[in-house]
Amino acid sequence: MERVEGIGGLFFSASDPEGLTRWYSDHLGVDPPPASYDEASWQQKAGSTVFAAMPAGSEHFGGPHHRWGINFRVADLGAMVAQLRSAGIPVAVDPATYPNGTFASLEDPEANGIQLWQPAGVDRQDTEKGG
Prior knowledge:
CATH superfamily: 2,3-Dihydroxybiphenyl 1,2-Dioxygenase, domain 1
Strand order of the largest sheet: 1-4-3-2
Number of strands: 4
CATH architecture: Roll
Order of helices and strands: HEHEEEH
Number of helices: 3
CATH topology: 2,3-Dihydroxybiphenyl 1,2-Dioxygenase, domain 1
Distance between the termini: 25 Å
Structural class: alpha+beta
């Protein structure tokens, strides 16, 4: 069976697309979409990706008025949280440590939910590839 190899893009509507694109670039390091086909797109590091449908109105997204959320893998959750907080961005750190890592939550300027995840140990995909 053929399988997709990963997510090629995440597209969502925004009241201020340019401002929100700039916010993600400035605070999380997500490069803006290229201006032409001659430029490279943002490159993410290889790692696990969870693709999961959630019940309508799930609190995972911040309530029934939100329909999507994103989880970004980070290398150092503490450093990322400190960076965001120093820019005046509220971040809630989950005090628990889970078998798969540690988490923090925040919202972008349009109140879309963002979860930050520092994986625990070696990423399973790396293990499967012998890395």
